[in-house]
Structures are given as C-alpha cells and as structure tokens.
Amino acid sequence: MPDAHCAEIDGLILTELAPRVTVTPLAPPSIAPHHQDPMTTMTLQALIFDLDGVLTDTAELHYRTWQRVAEEEGFAFSRSLGDQLRGVSRRASLEAILAGRVLSEAQMTALQARKNDHFLTMLNHMTSADLLPGVLPLLDDARASGLRTAVASASQNAHAVLDRLGIRPRFDVICDGHSVLHSKPAPDLFLLAATRLNVPPSACVVFEDAAAGIVGARAAGMMVVGVGPPSRVDGANLVVSSLANVRLADLQRLVADRQPPAAEEMYA
Ligand code: BG6
Ligand code: MG
After folding, report:
1. Is 90 in the pocket of ligand 1 (CB under 6 A)?
2. What residues contact 134, with CB distance under 8 A and at least 6 apart?
3. What residue's CA is closest to ligand 1, atom 1?
C-alpha cells in the first residue's frame, strides 16, 4: 500500500514529492491491452519518449558522472555496468554499483547528491545543439498528424534537461522520476503517461534506449521502438539506430498489426 506521501490512482502509486505533479482524478485508459477486441484495429494515437539516450545523449553524462563517483570511492565500474544502469533510477543505480556493500542511509544520500551535482554541472553546458538527430522532425510530424506526445523518464532532472534542450513545450505530458513510486522496469511511468494523455496503452508507441524501459513499456501493453544497437535493445518490437530513421507509417502499422514490419522492410 502507498505510504502517507503517495496517492494511488488506477493501481499506479503516484508520489507527491514534486509540487508540479498534481494528482487529479483521471479517466482510466479506455481500452487495456488485454481487453482489446481482437476484431478492432487499433490506431496510433500517441508517441511516448524516454529522455536520456533517446532525445539527447545524457545517458553518457549519467555514465561519466557515476564513473567519477565510483573512482572517488574506489568502487569498480565499467562500460557494461554503465549500460545496465540505463533507464534505472538514481537510487537503484547506486545500489547496483555498490554490488552488495551496505552503506548508511546518510552515505547513500550523500553519494547520490554528489553524483547529481556532477551531473548538473555537466548539464549546464547543454543546449538545443545536443538534441539527437531526427528528434525535431519526428515531433513535427507527430504534431502535424494529430498524435499526442509524452516523455516518460526515470530521471528527476527530466524537466531541467528538456529546458536545456528547449523542447519542454513540445510535449503534452511529462512523467519523470518524481511521478511514480515504482520506476522502470515497472510499467507505471508508461501507464501514467497514457492515462494523462487519455489514450489507451495499445495505441501508444514508446521509444527506449534501455532494457529496463523496454521491459516496462512492454509490460504496459505498448509497442516499443528500441533506439540503439540491437544487442542493447533486442527486446523491442522494432529497432532503429536513430530517430532519424523512424517513419510514422511504420509506427502506425506496428500498432495496427501488433507486430513489427516484415524483416525485409526493417530499417535499422
Ligand atoms: C534515467 C537514466 O533516465 O534516469 C538513468 O537512464 C538515471 O541513467 C535515471 O540513473 C535517474 O536520473 P536522475 O537524473 O534522477 O539521477
Ligand atoms: Mg534512456
């Protein structure tokens, strides 16, 4: 059960840590994936974007800042561990780096704060030039096609990153590391985004660069486009190397058919 700092809506435990997250009674998704009538063809209605590693390469900043803290503290760290931390919350990332070492709550808090200070220092240098290729054209196409858009990020810095990139107003809904108690790989962030968009999960396509996010989005009943090398995003329904390679028509088919385009039509 949620504690005194949380509220529960439609089975999602929402946190009330951030004043900007208002918990309003929203209509539940009209069609849950397991209730979808097999005879109806779903139409694509919304695009839900992970942030770090999808809209911009802040995944690399998270990697470098955890690496710095690990070096300062004498903890082992590697590229492969860093990749496993993609999409994982700050607290869970630290626990993974500690690999079973037990620290006091005060030490845990201090290390997370230090990592975040390093991250925010690097974030100060970011501008709209750090948007990854294809982001703006895809958002423009989505808007022109009447699709709704959301960000579903485990980061507590999502609003700050979107502001640095100058794209916050382009999204109808932003769910971040303050929004839910159970972060990725739980489906909660994605389900909350769909609920706030007032769109059924099965009408959404999610863009993710991380295994944790792919697991969460699929558990939410959404089709997922993996952005990155197939070895990292192999659980996705469709894999692209960059958002610049995404065509709305293919996303529409992904949602309508509930399966990826035929192999010969895949574009990575
Ligand atoms: C995710 C990143 O988006 O956000 C993770 O992929 C990061 O690497 C997580 O740990 C939490 O970010 P923050 O900004 O709250 O420390
Ligand atoms: Mg990511």
Report:
1. yes
2. 242, 243, 244, 245, 246
3. 87
